[in-house]
What does this fold into?
Amino acid sequence: MTAAIPELSGSFYAGVDLAKKEDFSVVAVLRKDEDALRLIHLNVFPQRTEYADVINYLKALSERLKTIHRILVDQTGAGEAAVEQAKKAVPNIEGIVLTVPRKQKILEYVKLMMREKRVLFPYELDFLQELNAERFELTKSGQIQFSHPHGTHDDRFWAFTLAVFATKTTPTLKIRCSVSGRRKAKPRRKT
It folds into this structure.
């Protein structure tokens, strides 16, 4: 897929895997087409791309597509500071720390969506290789460990899975009472 920002209409969701030195920062965008999620954009930045450049790209992408409902950004390596900076420039960004239990939850959802044939993506060799290279094993302590073979990357994989997971939750209303006793509806996200 090319890095050109598409001009499309619809409901979009994005996943971002930030990296700085050895890995690549990647932005994956899905469009929700009725019951299917279609990968319509995948941008892999060169290694050592500054976070500010990725954030500027996300801002341009958000302005172009207009209806990106949710952007999940892996803040595990980048840290909270990079995600907070992104939130100032781009609406609908949420940071997510990829702990082992959270990775399991994300991958269970992606597996379900793929099993139901609700995720569509083009044939793009590097992307498909990353999808097939991700490994997991049960350690002696009973934890699941995720990895990829030496010399490969999983940046496209995690950006894609975050984009799919971004579609899982929708805003719900949470009722809270104000000091005057009146109820106020406040949108919140449920995971």
Observations:
- The longest helix spans residues 100-115.
- The chain has five helices and ten strands.
